[in-house]
Amino acid sequence: MPVTEAIREALDLGTLHLPESPKVIELIPENYTDMDGEASLRITAVIDEDTELDRIDGKNVGLLKTEIHRSLQQHGIELFPYIFIAKPSELATEEQDA
Amino acid sequence: MYQDLIEQAKSLAELDGRGAPRQANLRRSVSAAYYALFHFLVDQACRAVVGTQHNQQGFRHTLARAFVHTTMKSACGSFSGTQLPDTVVKSLPKNQDGKYLIPEPIKQISTLLKELQQKRHLADYDLSERFRRSEVLSLIQQVGQHIQAFTALPLSDDRQFFLICLLSWKELANR
What we know:
The complex is a heterodimer of chains A (about 100) and B (about 180). By secondary structure, chain A is α+β, with helices and mostly antiparallel strands.
């Protein structure tokens, strides 16, 4: 099943109130089924390449995820979003390895 | 226990320095981060039921063995949403809109447990999943912060109710 327009709208970086750090540069949603067979979403939050990993603030990561949850619920999407964080270079390495 | 597990998770995630991290280290790190949160919540629940005195430790440790991962995930799935099931919420105090409001730190730690349990499952069993250092370090930081926020919650009925639900959700939600 394709990702719906409502999901894309809910994840529009122009309207989400995300923390400044870690800076999210892209949100990639995919339909997902979790370990219990529950229909869900898998969202890759691509963060700025220059983000210093040892300075990532757990509170901001929580705020980032909470805002995504809030926006999805506001758009009537009840699917639980499993959010994964990645840098562009990490995604590129995976593509090379594949 | 949970503090040691957070330290262990961090050590594993940083073990390979700035080079390409080994998947085995990142996977064990995710697992340790999950168990840090799991043991923290179980300990808090046992303290709520048994008591916090040192001489009650044996009772707490015995009760801790009764917690079930899937029951906790199911409870946390409900507490992470906007509203609990009607059967659970019907006798709880409500606001002017007729809704039981779940305190934000409870909602957040519930969301994190559900998310982490899925990721722990992937880390332990799904070799097609590839873990990234930025993901793992973010998770560890989030676990530490959410534990801190939950610890700062006053000993309210909401807090105690949530903790007991981690043990009794299966029966409670199906009544």
